[in-house]
Amino acid sequence: MRTISRSISPTTFIFEELREDSLPDRLLVAIQKNMDSLSQETKRYITQNKPTATFEKVLQYNLAYAPAELFLNFYGNHKFYLESRDDSEKLTAIWKQKRDSLLAVYPLNNAEALISPIYKMLIGNYLLQRKEELWATAQSSDFLSTYYSEFPSNQRAQAYSGDPENLLQEKIINKEFTGQINEYLYAYLLQMMSRSKKTNATVIFDRFKAKYPTSLYRSLYEPMITEARINEKRPLNEKMVFLDSSGRLKKLDDVINLFKGRTVLVDMWGTWCGPCHQEIEKNAHALKTHFKNKDLQFLYISNFDLKNQLNWKKLIRYYSMEGSHVLASRELSEDAMNKTGSDSFPTYFIIKKDGTYELSKAGYPMERELLIKQLEEAMSYH
User: Fold this and answer.
1) How many domains is the chain partitioned into structurally?
2) CA-to-CA distance for 54 and 51, rounded, in angstroms?
3) Where in the cell is it found (predicted)?
4) Please, what's the largest Cα pairwise distance for the chain?
5) How many whole angstroms separate alpha carbon 34 and alpha carbon 17?
6) Domain of 37, in residue numbers
7) Residue 149, burial from CB neighbour count under 10 angstroms (0-12, 13-18, 19+)
8) Could you tell me if 241 and 264 are in contact, meaning their C-beta atoms sit under 8 angstroms apart?
9) Helix axes 166-176, 179-195, angle to 10 degrees
10) Domain final position from 112, 136, 160
11) pTM score
């Protein structure tokens, strides 16, 4: 028998033709057809192989939670298409109603279902989409009073904006899940942080440890947290040069003029950008080591962070981002992205000695050796 997670993969039944559907009707039909087939396959497997009672429960929970997981999996990307339509508000409400009806069929907070990989996928997916859904209401007093009631009312918006990712997910976990599911989702959040932004990782881990002192998950993340504590104590140093901390620069040419006659690797990043954190953590030190004592400048332009200066400098310390730093105005961000032809973060481009520039060819995730070759060619350019 195919593995249960593979057999209900959305790629087995969600066709390209569904990607511009404004209503979820055909998706629901496709899910039902897939589930009918999977149900029959599961019954045959149980009859023929007589699995243990525990494994049979795994299969049954997989079947129970698969429709909701398949819907969330598809909707997670499809919502961007819906948002592009003029009637997006009406259509999104219809999709959410269908999603919520599927989520209501079986308890979302179900410790017995933790044996099911599909259930784990579902609650992880739910946590991500719930966070993104709350972003849309983040400036409302209801949202702030519900999720940040421990802060004085005049400090709640700042508390949210300081970390709208990890701390908000922790709040969702504690508000919507209890017991073993709460513990599991704490571990899930720590796992996500190990691959991406580690903002507030230590304080979240400390609360997790206090709440679940004997948790088997603790040992999995203690090495990450130990390293994070060390990184948090790093100071700013003289090799971290702040060229603009107020959004003064408005055009890419303003930046180029600061580096006349130099070769510069520019990293367009943001404190809010998970992939940016990943790329900095994986590649920044290695690139600096390779080009040590060579005439290559490193420039980090932080985008859409003018209201997040404290976290900006905190992350520069954390990742030991030695080089020049600019806190970009919206005008600079838009001008640089338009002129380099990029539309996503992180973006890397190279400024040459003559003031011309070119987009990195290294792609995402970065092919570091390809970028090194491109930089060496740029440095030899006269």
Assistant:
1) 2
2) 8
3) Cell envelope
4) 75
5) 17
6) 1-136
7) exposed
8) no
9) 170
10) 136
11) 0.89
Distance from C-alpha of 49 to C-alpha of 243, rounded to nearest angstrom: 68
- Residue 52 tokens read as 């243990």
pLDDT in tens, 213-249: 999 999 999 999 999 999 999 999 999 999 999 999 9
**Chain mean position to CA 161:** 16
Distances (CA, A) of 9 to 4, 113, 145: 9, 19, 39
Query: What strands, in cross-sheet order, belong to the sheet with 347-351?
Result: 240-244, 323-327, 296-302, 263-269, 347-351, 357-359
* Residue where one domain finishes, among candidates 79, 107, 136: 136
pLDDT at 10 > cutoff 90:
no
* pLDDT bracket for residue 161 (50, 70, 90): confident
Q: Count how many Cα atoms sit within 13 Å of the Cα of residue 235 in the half-sphere of its side chain.
A: 2
Q: Is residue 352 part of a domain?
A: yes
**Residue 304 DSSP code:** S
- For residue range 322-342, list pLDDT tens digits in order: 999 999 999 999 999 999 999
